[in-house]
Amino acid sequence: MSGKMLAGITGVLLAIVMCCIGGAILGAGGVAIAACANPAPSLTDAASGSPPPASASGWPAIGQWSSSQVANAAIIVAVGQQLHVPPRGWVIAVAVAMQESALTNTPGGDQDSVGLFQQRPSQGWGTPAQLIDPVYASTQFYTALLRVPRWQDLALTVAGQAVQHSAYPDAYAKHEPDALAVVSTVSGVAQAALAACGAAGPWTQPVHGPIVSGFRTPQRPTHQGDDIAAPPGTTIVAASAGTVSVVACQAIAPDGSDYGCDRDGSPTIKGCGWYVEIQHGGGIMTRYCHMKTRPMVAVGQPVAPGEPIGLVGSSGNSSGPHLHFEVHINNDRSSNGAVDPKRFMREHGAPLGSK
Ligand SMILES: [Zn+2]
């Protein structure tokens, strides 16, 4: 098949180009990973358990968050720094407080909930007098977070829920972009570096097989993922921990009608076929297209790295069985948010195309 040969040649050319820019990218990744492990020591001279020194003019308002709300976020972050909690923990804590109390230190709330995290005295978090102290409340949150196994590898919703036992854990996710912006401002750590901490992994190949068509090649400049060839029925797994955000069938016939996904598509059919999207930490999303049958997972379901999510097929816009795999950053599902999966996965310790 000439198309396949062309794809193979393109893959070789792509690999040559990739090797030359890989060094710079890996260097940047190393910096980000170091920042994830080492909290900025800017407040280490503050007395243990004290709130951060506010500047004379106070903290700025950020988006919908007022100066006083941002000041409460600054306390949460400062406590995390003093406890040597990695920066990902600061983002989780601020996002949870955004949802639970709108970053407002309130003495009342749902049932007997108190304070920034709406912790409940009846569940052993502390007395109402203790929990209204933002430093005490933050310390209690981090202490519980650090007890969650591998919390840094979990999606924000999963990590937050493990601490809070909230009735609405999925609501934490919508605050992640705001939490990144606010934490960046009050900590001085660059937003991109904070976001990268959320993608710390572990990551794993969704399918083991050769890449037969690459990301945005000269021949396919709008191809927003990598095509990994594998026999039909091969199990596709989640590339990292996260929460399933989309499960859908997308297959549109040339006349605009719904072609359906429970049969093979073709190059004249538009769409991803049966597909899944998974939200990971740090605004990262992965997409898995052309599955053979309805995916094995449901929207809202937490998944572990390597957990089966579907089977390789050829539904939708596809000329043969393969996994079309995309990686998106910045909470952007559009093609603008897509990055090279081959490069991303190599940087995260799970290079595509290997055994
Ligand atoms: Zn593709």
Distance between the termini: 25 Å
Order of SSEs? HHHHHHHHEEEEEEEEEEH
Radius of gyration: 23 Å
Described by the principal axes of the CA atoms, the overall outline is elongated
Biggest sheet descriptor: 8 strands, antiparallel
| SS summary, helix count | 9
User: Structural class, judged by helices and strands?
Assistant: alpha+beta
How many β-strand runs?
Answer: 10
Given as residue ranges, the uncertain stretches (5+ residues, pLDDT < 50) are: 1-34, 38-50
Describe the overall structure.
This protein has 355 residues and is an alpha+beta fold. It folds into two domains: 3-196, no CATH class; 211-347, Glucose Permease (Domain IIA) (Distorted Sandwich). Helices cover 34% and strands 15% of the residues. It has helices at residues 2-37, 67-82, 87-101, 128-131, 134-146, 156-164, 176-187, 191-197, 341-347; strands spanning 211-213, 226-229, 235-237, 242-252, 270-279, 285-291, 302-303, 308-311, 322-328, 338-339. The strands form two sheets. Strands 1, 2, 4, 5, 6, 7, 9 and 10 form an eight-stranded antiparallel β-sheet that branches. A hairpin with a 5-residue loop joins strand 5 (270-279) and strand 6 (285-291). The longest helix has 36 residues, at 2-37. It is elongated. The two termini are 25 Å apart.
